[in-house]
């Protein structure tokens, strides 16, 4: 165990045979030896005189953390010229001001001109100060740093190469971070066209080529090149159509247009790409990323090593299928074509998918059997998750019935007119329903979710990206294949995409240019993680399902135990299962209360006592740790309240706005509860388990939303639609409606076209 900033870090077992670069970002966490190249734009301030101290301190902190994890870190740094320029400017101004004051008077100080400073002189003046700064920063993390200055000649002389190699290996062995820079005080001017001449020769004319040469010489696992751009773009950054390239493959440079170099430094993006490809060919993985952005520079290096989608990753292994960005674009285009189909055509696709679920059930169940066997052999899934993973003939039949319900109810979902207004003569306005766009649905251990969500997306004309758990890979694959087969009957196969790449969920949540809505289907932890990771993309769902049942004084004895049993015991892992049972105080020590307790004991439900309930008991069950707990198992909390008002207040304070129930025969009390509880679903004398899209007659649901914007409760087709406004005029302009204009606003409501109810 090493220590960094007083926090212990367990040293990671990092080792691999060098010679082949990593194929995927997810493998970068195994990198043992890492070179971090800091470009001039990263190290220097915007005025190019002096260093960006805050940025540099953050980089040192990240390098120190990785060093203390057991990795071998090296830094190739720029900045000596900028640091020296700052010192020399200061000295020149100081000397000039003294001379001016002695000979010309104070009034001419403002007219002083600073001569152009020669770069080699600046480098000579700045090297010692730059290194002293690095040493001071690394000392804060109990790490020693050492400076090495090199020139191109040092790599051409075999003896010097061996000496350099030996020195670096010895420093790494002693847990010292080498800080390498070109010796700009003596380096000759760069020669034209001498850059990257073959596999065995590379001209060190800037720190990009130095870093690449060093990475290959030292058999480095990873080279991180930090600059002032996010990575490599398919056209110059800042242009309208520029897109960040996530993964760059050898040979792709022919399709890339390079812009100008950075504001400071010797190399531009073209030099970085050439250096990166040379290093890649030598067996070193490369990532080019932004080291200047204030929102990401504080963790850019550690994010890259963790395999997160940062910058451009250079890989020699090209995936067989499309990238997730390409899949997003395909889903967008396919969704627009899908939305343009006639309602009958979309319904036909869903009917076809329903038929395929039953016609191909043997193949589906065979694939599902593989998933179950693999999950059981690896022992990675708890029993409730195995139950969710399992498919059966009855499940597939129920799925098919639900899909046919969706098809039947979707006839006028897209393009339905919900408002018509006559603005003025011959100027009519309509508000119509339209698809949201591209949905990303992330689900765990539930392959039956795939056809349900696909059918809802098809019915609502949305493009769809699906990310299922790897535990259901075989099941998801065949169900997606059948979905695309159904879509093919009207040529919209691309509208539904299954993400099979090694994309992390957190990376998917950053694709705000491709995805319009994220819908998580899974554990509360999954939902919370996605809500935290989503960057500018709305998330529809609920992080917790803390559902309450309140038993009123006027509750029916016959109904109470039946509703509570169903709410808690029918499927305790469901998000709509009972978690807290509220009992009116007057029911304590009554036969009804005894029946409730006896039933829970028979069903082997573990009881946790709320604070007030515990105060009434001499020997109480274990007192609840928190009244805001989702157990997801045969456990529940019992708490006592004095009235229906107190029950409502308790639900508002400790609930999750999911589903809450009152059991009573008093209609006035029930209506008070229904009107005052602010949850997505509020029931009277019915089980919490009815909170479900299929049971609501929606055919299926993409999830249950507890948000207060857009959709709430079980979300079916309607929740996947938004609206747009259509205005039809005839040479209308706003100036005609001014005070002296010829037209007046009417704002008349017009009748809506009759809906298709068949």
UniProtKB/TrEMBL annotation:
One of its GO terms (biological process) is L-proline biosynthetic process. Keywords: Amino-acid biosynthesis, ATP-binding, Kinase, Mitochondrion, Multifunctional enzyme, NADP, Nucleotide-binding, Oxidoreductase, Proline biosynthesis, Transferase. Pathway: Amino-acid biosynthesis; L-proline biosynthesis; L-glutamate 5-semialdehyde from L-glutamate: step 1/2; Amino-acid biosynthesis; L-proline biosynthesis; L-glutamate 5-semialdehyde from L-glutamate: step 2/2. It is found in: Mitochondrion matrix. Its EC number is 1.2.1.41, 2.7.2.11. Residues 324-588 form the Aldehyde dehydrogenase domain. It comes from the Eukaryota. GO terms for molecular function: ATP binding; glutamate 5-kinase activity; glutamate-5-semialdehyde dehydrogenase activity. HAMAP family: ProA, ProB. In the C-terminal section; belongs to the gamma-glutamyl phosphate reductase family. In the N-terminal section; belongs to the glutamate 5-kinase family. Bifunctional enzyme that converts glutamate to glutamate 5-semialdehyde, an intermediate in the biosynthesis of proline, ornithine and arginine. This is Delta-1-pyrroline-5-carboxylate synthase. It comes from Haliaeetus albicilla.
